[in-house]
Amino acid sequence: MEVKFDKQVFGKRVEKCTKLMKAEDYVVLLLTKPSNMYYLTGDGRLCAYTMITAQGQVAIGVPETDGDDVQELAHFDNLATFKDEIGMIHSIADFYKHFEINKGVVGLEYTFLTNSMLGMMTHPHAKPDAVIVKDCTKIMSEMRMVKEPIEIELMQDAARIADIGMEAAIASIKAGMTESQIAGEGEYAMRQAGAEGFWRSYVASGVRTRIAHGIPTNYKVKHGDIIIIDLHPIVNNYSSDICRMTCVGKASVNQVRAYETYLEALQNTIAKAIDGVGMVDLEQTLHGVIQNAGYGNNIFGPPIHGIGINFEEAPLPPGHAFFHGEKAPPPLVKNIPIAIGNCGIYTKDWGVRIEDTVVVGKDKPLILTTYPYDL
Amino acid sequence: MEVKFDKQVFGKRVEKCTKLMKAEDYVVLLLTKPSNMYYLTGDGRLCAYTMITAQGQVAIGVPETDGDDVQELAHFDNLATFKDEIGMIHSIADFYKHFEINKGVVGLEYTFLTNSMLGMMTHPHAKPDAVIVKDCTKIMSEMRMVKEPIEIELMQDAARIADIGMEAAIASIKAGMTESQIAGEGEYAMRQAGAEGFWRSYVASGVRTRIAHGIPTNYKVKHGDIIIIDLHPIVNNYSSDICRMTCVGKASVNQVRAYETYLEALQNTIAKAIDGVGMVDLEQTLHGVIQNAGYGNNIFGPPIHGIGINFEEAPLPPGHAFFHGEKAPPPLVKNIPIAIGNCGIYTKDWGVRIEDTVVVGKDKPLILTTYPYDL
Question: Are A369 and A357 in contact (CB under 8 A)?
């Protein structure tokens, strides 16, 4: 699927952004998170920044090598290029001057900037003294949470490619392969099928299925191992998230029972992903089935997260949100994509988990990832 | 290559760490960067922390799912597990109490923690009021910069696998393939050959070779395109960095001339990577050849960076170091691995770049990446 966003799309988004800015008295946002910059301008890259003024002016700064490329890809009013960090800082200061901003609140992404990067963006040479800084994470999250129809279409494409990756990974598995090789099969298939990249893949097998973040290792899967595979392709800048399990040989009776419980919990939760549902309702539905089956002490992890340009973005579950600089999620509405199944049932010797990307619908959910659930 | 670090290795590293801590009056380091945690304990994972006291006590906190796994992999004195962020914060507070630390300076990694994560680690419930925080990036960089012989061996293995990835990527190329598919060939070969993962791959072709960070796209390479490929496998937790170029068909006379200039600059610089050389000397050598050939206005990017567990780590070039929370690099000594060739010659329509991983030697450099330089 070839995608061209209309220039007007970015104009409308910037307009919406300025309304949110004014409501919270920001005079400018100074963004460096690629997904946020992409959303507002059509381009988001490393070592770059985007300034949005409350009047809706858009300024971009990029390495001097990237000027012509950005000119082709992005929508903006002003462009600066720089040679190094010092040039970057000075170009930011120049934009403050150009926009006649010498006081007020500038929004920075506290959930993206490391403390040392924050120091750079607020360097005395980078901004007027009287400009003070505040976290603008919540503004960008609020903007991006409900997706436009074209964004949903792009995510459908990303989900199609997640299914392809999962099929390739599972089809490849035989005893003696490493977890890393299994991940490689899924990733390779996704790039072949049209993904321009992917977020970190997880493959964990045997006893490693019990850990929270099963980054692939060179552990060789053996007969009787269950395997968790979690893939997140990026296709036309949009992400999807799928997790499935399989087994070399036959899973144990206890594993099958836990897996079937988790699947039931997932499907019940997906069914409730309709307009007006609360994130906590969804969590309780998922946890409820698991608890009722006697696995109440085996649940770990926040079960749901938003997804879009980033594979984890707002809405996040309330507790998680607080510590990650996000607002507690409002009731979910149509066209908010979420990944359901981010937690698992974990025992001392193994764990089970299944995850799908789903869009909250008016009357029923739109399920994007469709690879079969067979263990 | 199967690797087992001796328990004593970690004991010695912790001892060295406490000396550096005492010299700067830290009472404790509270680390969350996986590479730093791995270096000191043998395990570094997501959503975890490691506390090192000035007395050399080591405490680890991990998700409750991960307790048994960490028990097998890490060297430590105390282990806490937690269910969520609130549990994490409280477990940190408990360790302060356990170690009877109620004042003094705690070191945090300002170059790794986002501002919101920093807020979590310094939450009033996470630490005693009188404990103040400071960036400890430089301590960890100083510790890790000069590698132990076993680390060099591991990096040789990572470089061998980088060569394998590069060979596969270049062998695969034909007109009509996407940049992403080319990246996929290199990544797949590295996972097959023993990499447990890799840092972000770069593949840029045609006019996209002019940009600073050529993240792969679905652009299809066509006859006459030059292609930059930059790969960074992770093997047994250690990284290597290789960049090579190739062409579908034949590069232009101007491209070949720039490429040969860059290669000469790289090789002259590599030859100087011996005990006592300054990072700035190396930069000037590389830039000098490029300037003398008339490309003085076409250089972009800091040309050299350290490499080890992370594919970019200390030493960094002075200007870059300042903005990234690192010290200006001291004269380089034997067993500091560096990646040379991180900058490029960039024109309006294309760019060239070649990069190798090299270890500073006593009398001559040890060149780790060896894939041929043919354009």
Answer: yes
Place of tokens 């567990």: B309
Q: Give the whole-angstrom CA distance, residue B137 versus residue B21.
A: 12
A175 in reach of chain B (CB within 8 A): no
Q: Is the dihedral of CA B115, B120, B121, B125 positive or negative?
A: positive
Say whether B348 and A68 touch across the interface (CB within 8 A).
Answer: yes
**CB of A368 within 8 A of CB of A337?**
yes
Encoded amino acid at A324, one letter: H
Contacts of B94 (CB under 8 A, 6+ apart): B80
Structural contact between residues A58 and A23, judged by C-beta atoms closer than 8 angstroms: no
Query: How far off is chain B from A203, nearest CA to CA, in Å?
Result: 11
The partner residue sitting opposite B84, judged by closest CB among A69, A319, A351, is A319
Closest CA to B242 of B156, B364, B328: B156
pTM surpassing 0.95?
A: yes
Q: Bridge-partner residues for A52, per DSSP?
A: A29, A58
pLDDT digits (tens, 9 = 90+) for B153-198: 999 999 999 999 999 999 999 999 999 999 999 999 999 999 999 9
Decide if A187 and B183 are in contact by the 8 Å CB cutoff. no
Residue B316, class by beta-carbon neighbours within 10 Å (0-12 exposed, 13-18 middle, 19+ buried)? buried
Residue A356 corresponds to which amino acid? D
Which of the four pLDDT bands, split at 50, 70 and 90, describes residue A15? very high
CA dist list (Å): B245 to A39, A346, B232, B263: 32, 46, 15, 11
Of the candidates A272, A276, A271, A330, which has an alpha carbon nearest to the alpha carbon of residue A306?
Answer: A330
**Length of chain B (residues):** 375
Q: What is the DSSP string of B136-163?
A: -HHHHHHHHHSPPHHHHHHHHHHHHHHH
Chain A contact present for B133, CB below 8 A: no
Picking from B252, B270, B237, the residue whose alpha carbon sits closest to that of residue B158 is: B237
Question: Which secondary structure element, helix H or strand E, spans residue B116, and what is its range?
Answer: helix B115-121
Question: Hey, what are A52's tokens?
Answer: 């949005």
Q: Which of A349, A370, A355 is nearest to A305 (CA)?
A: A355
Average pLDDT of the residues in A248-257: 97
CB A201 within 8 A of CB A232: yes
**Structural domains of chain B ordered from first start:** 7-143 (3.40.350.10), 146-367 (3.90.230.10)
Could you identify the residue written with the tokens 């791995």?
A: B38
State both tokens at A60: 């971009």
The one-letter code for the residue type at A212 is A
> Which value does ipTM take for this structure?
0.97
Residue A264's pLDDT is what? 98
Instruction: Return the pLDDT at A104.
Output: 98
- Give the DSSP letter of residue A360: -
